[in-house]
Design a protein that fits this description.
By secondary structure, the chain is of the alpha+beta class. The chain contains 13 helices and five strands. InterPro entries: Bact_polysacc_biosynth/exp.
């Protein structure tokens, strides 16, 4: 047998009109059992883009936005630096290195340096700078970008101080005692001028410290000196009044002369009595020579008694006045010595205060920057990118763990 040929009836032949309804019905049954036609396959790059969409939105897009701002919008900021040392005039045995190179003999003063740094970052410094420079105008230059410029144009003191502390930094190296002052601005000249102004303010504040310390150190000694001066004046006034009241310039000298006179009279009286006694055996009592010596003795006795009475023993004697004069004289000498001691104490206090005087030495003058140091564009973009990348990785690991636990 050569082959098998199926027998086609008129109903099965699609060419015949009688078979067309059956063919269409068969086709409908086949399509009904087969379901809808399959969708066309998508390209692989679309699937990859859909899978990477969270990474693009969370990491790449914010990084691109930050990079666009840093490189297209962010304004350049210039930094001027200055270095200075706060030292005292008191010698220090530990001075060496930089101190010897600069010819410094004073000791560093870390506490005062810290206080100067605090002052330069305080509202007092901002107010003092405002007298010579327009800080809002400096921090709102036309070249400044909207994010980093000072806002508003006329800020309240608290806002200005907060922005000022962002642009000005002060740091102290405790090992060397050098204080670093850094100032940022949108123009090189603004940064240098502001740094110079702050240095002058620091020097002015140190001078105020010196004046206050000098006044406090000398106040007690000066008060003692003024009191000693009043004591000397009162003692001299009392002594002068005593001299004028007694009409005796120097009662001590007068008493010395009176004592000498009384002693001379007593000596003359003793000599006259000795002469009379020697004449008693050889000369008659009524002889002219004996009578004369007797009269001389009586006169000397009267004079000696009067001289002795002027020294002591009567209200008119000079002894009470001499005692009062010596008391006033001792008070005057005591007041004078007290004045000398107070003057020496004041001088010693002044020398000690001068040894404790502070002064500012400029190690590095404020420079005029030629290159912008801020913003750190590449560093900022890198920090944002790696920070977002780390956050995305941590989030992906957490989500994967949750899905695995749920499955």
């Amino acid at each position: 047998m050569d082959g098998y040929a199926p027998t086609i009836t008129p109903a099965d032949d699609p060419a015949t009109p009688a078979a067309e309804p059956q063919v269409r019905a068969a086709r409908r049954r086949r399509f009904a059992h087969a379901g809808p036609p399959p969708a066309p396959a998508r390209p692989k790059w679309q699937d990859g883009l859909r899978a990477a969409r969270p990474f693009l939105l969370i990491v790449i897009l914010p990084t691109l936005l930050v990079a666009g701002f840093q490189y297209l919008i962010a304004a350049n900021q210039y930094q001027s630096e200055a270095h200075f040392i706060v030292r005292s005039a008191q010698p220090s045995g530990g001075t060496g290195g930089l101190g010897q190179m600069l010819g410094l003999t004073g000791a560093p003063s870390p506490a005062e340096a810290h206080s100067i740094g605090d002052y330069l970052l305080s509202h007092d410094a901002v107010a003092a700078v405002q007298w010579t420079m327009d800080l809002p105008a400096i921090f709102r230059r036309p070249e400044a970008d909207p994010i980093t410029r000072l806002d508003p144009a006329h800020p309240p003191p608290e806002t200005l101080l907060k922005y000022y502390r962002r642009q000005v930094s002060v740091s102290l190296n405790t090992e060397t005692g050098i204080t670093d002052l850094s100032v940022r601005a949108f123009r090189p000249a603004d940064a240098r001028d502001l740094a110079e102004t702050l240095l002058r303010l620091g020097e002015t504040r140190v001078n105020a410290f010196n004046q206050r310390a000098l006044a406090n150190g000398l106040s007690v000694a000066d008060a003692q000196l003024r009191e000693a001066e009043r004591g000397v004046t009162d003692a001299q006034r009392n002594l002068t009044g005593f001299r004028q009241g007694g009409r005796d310039i120097d009662p001590e000298r007068t008493s010395t002369a009176q004592i000498t006179l009384a002693a001379n009279l007593q000596q003359q009286l003793a000599q006259a009595r000795a002469q009379r006694d020697s004449m008693a055996g050889s000369v008659a009592p009524d002889s002219p020579q004996y009578v004369a010596i007797a009269r001389q003795i009586r006169a000397l006795e009267v004079q000696a008694a009067a001289a002795q009475g002027r020294l002591a023993g009567s209200a008119a004697s000079i002894a009470p006045g001499l005692g009062a004069y010596e008391s006033l004289r001792l008070r005057q000498e005591f007041a004078a010595k007290r004045y000398e001691a107070a003057a020496a104490s004041l001088e010693a206090a002044r020398e000690q205060a001068l040894k404790q005087q502070l002064f500012v030495i400029r190690v590095v003058e404020p420079n005029l920057p030629s290159k912008a140091l801020y913003p750190h564009r590449l560093k900022t973009v890198a920090i944002v990118f790696f920070g977002l990348l780390l956050s995305y990785a941590v989030g992906w690991l957490i989500l994967a763990g949750v899905r695995e636990h749920a499955g």
